[in-house]
Amino acid sequence: MSKQRMSKPAPSEMALPKRPSSSPTPPEMPATTNPNPPPVSTTTPNTAFPNPLPATPAPRAAVTARLNDQLKELRLPTFREQFQTLAEQATREGLSYPHYLAELASRECQTRNHSRVQRLLRNSRLLPGKTWEQFAWSRVPLQVARQLQSLREGTFLDRRENLLVFGKPGSGKTHLLAALGEQLARQGRSVLFTTCSLLVQELLTAKRDLKLERCLKRLAGFEALIIDDLGYVQQSREEMEVLFTLLAERYERGSVLLTSNLPFSQWEQIFKDPMTTAAAIDRLVHHSVIIELNIPSYRLETAKNTRKTPAEATPSPTAP
Q1: Between 20 and 30 A from 98 (CA), which of 113, 127, 222, 258?
Q2: In what order do the strands lie in the sheet with 162-167?
Q3: Cβ–Cβ < 8 Å for 115, 188
């Protein structure tokens, strides 16, 4: 039986012996859990104020000057005017820093509220002298006076309710709504007073200039739109069409307060068309308060009281 010769591997294929490592790898240690790990901070560092408070305070004059500039930049005029005087008062009375700051903030809010009310009164176009205090409340029925007192709170504006006041000329309709509008403006409500004729002319001009949508949008910014003397002056069909457009736009979006000496049965004289008249009445009456002033003319009563009779003007002869 012939012997098979084994071939020797090439020198390059021979495995080299492993050399021991000079730095043996340490054995792995079992993982241990720290029963009290360090707390992890979840707060983000405030980078808006990187510098701490100075150890040595700046001179008082420098602080005051810098504070004036900062309050001017922040647009806090009442703070600028009163922070020094109020600081001296707080020092005398021993007020805390929060009390001092709260008093300053309160005065700033009061000033801003007063300025806003004055701006609302200027923009309202209310008639001068037609105020709540100057209205002759003794002339109106007690129920009407109570209704107006409730409306004075202004919550009907939040419900988008209308107020319709009817009465003969001179019954005080205009003064009543002007006085109510003045009270609403003093509560921070946006009010606009206008006569029906001026309002219609404004709407017609806007329609002619292709700006009716912009005009309606501006009027929609007022919470209370007071329209005085609806139907007092006869208007054309085109004029009543733009007025109806306004009423339709404000339906359930803003309150309309109007006066008229014509009852609903005669409103076809105003809108010139039965369908338009019915649609206008429907939009106004829905969500509305209706007040009727069935009282004599205030101007006529005043004229009668100021006019003297001949018997009063001529002294009576003395008895013999």
Answers
A1: 113
A2: 191-195, 224-230, 255-260, 162-167, 288-293
A3: no
- How do the domains of the chain map onto residue ranges? 65-123, 126-303
**Highest-scoring range by mean pLDDT, 137-141, 256-260, 308-312:** 256-260
Q: What is the mean pLDDT of residues 285-292?
A: 95
Spatial CA neighbour of 284 closest among 227, 236, 241: 227
The DSSP H or E segment spanning 134 is none
> In whole angstroms, what is the distance from residue 171 CA to residue 177 CA?
12
In which element (H, E) is residue 107 found? helix 97-124
Element (H, E) at 262: none
Q: In which residue are the tokens 């006041």 written? A: 165
Question: Is 230:260 a contact under the CB 8 Å cutoff?
Answer: yes
CB neighbours of 142 closer than 8 A, spacing ≥ 6? none
51 or 254: whose pLDDT is higher? 254
**Residues 6+ positions from 137 with CB-CB distance below 8 Å:** 145
Nearest of 225, 224, 203 to residue 213 by alpha carbon: 203
Can you give the length of the chain in residues?
320
Q: How far is CA 202 from CA 242, 271, 277, 307, in A?
A: 10, 18, 21, 40
Contacts of 77 (CB under 8 A, 6+ apart): 71, 111
Strands 191-195 and 162-167: unpaired
When computed from its CA atoms, the radius of gyration of the chain, rounded to whole angstroms, is: 41
Q: What is the pLDDT of residues 2-40, one digit of tens each?
A: 444 555 555 444 444 555 555 555 555 555 555 566 555
CATH C-level class of 126-303: alpha beta
Indicate yes or no: pTM above 0.90: no
Contacts 24+ apart (CB under 8 A), 138-144: 139/172, 139/295, 139/298, 140/172, 140/176, 140/293, 140/295, 141/295, 144/291, 144/293
Q: Of 260, 73, 252, 246, whose CA–CA distance to 169 is shortest?
A: 260
Which is it for strands 224-230 and 191-195: parallel, antiparallel or unpaired? parallel
